Amino acid sequence: MVRNVIHAFNQHGLACLTQQSNRRKPLHTLLDDTSLVTLRNLLHQSPRAFGKPASLWILELVAQVSFQQGLTPYLVSAETIR
Fold first, then answer.
1. Per residue in 61-77, pLDDT tens?
2. How far apart are CA 77 and CA 82, in angstroms?
3. What is the DSSP-derived secondary structure letter of residue 65?
4. What pLDDT score was predicted for residue 80?
């Protein structure tokens, strides 16, 4: 945290001490509403239905299957799926 303040001071000087907006920045989502519904339906099936050896979903497995099913344009990280 202190490093962030020092970095901000080096970039902006004393202006870094003024109150900044606390408003959340908008998230840029990779999946549209239709893809989200399809993903939700996919998660109600067994991973074995998609040729996976597991019986429970984990985030990495969801990322792999969502890419294979064309829901994502590239293989995403587990954090993106979260």
1. 999 999 999 999 999 99
2. 9
3. H
4. 86
CA distance 59 to 2: 34
- Asked if residue 43 lies in contact with residue 56, where contact means CB atoms within 8 angstroms, the answer is no
- What the block records as the tokens of 49 is 């239905």
Q: What pTM did the predictor assign? A: 0.65
Please give the share of the chain, as a percent, with pLDDT higher than 90: 51
Helix intervals (H) in 1-82 = 2-12, 33-43, 59-68, 78-81
Query: How is residue 48 written in tokens?
Result: 């074995």
CA angle 61, 67, 71 (to 5 degrees): 115
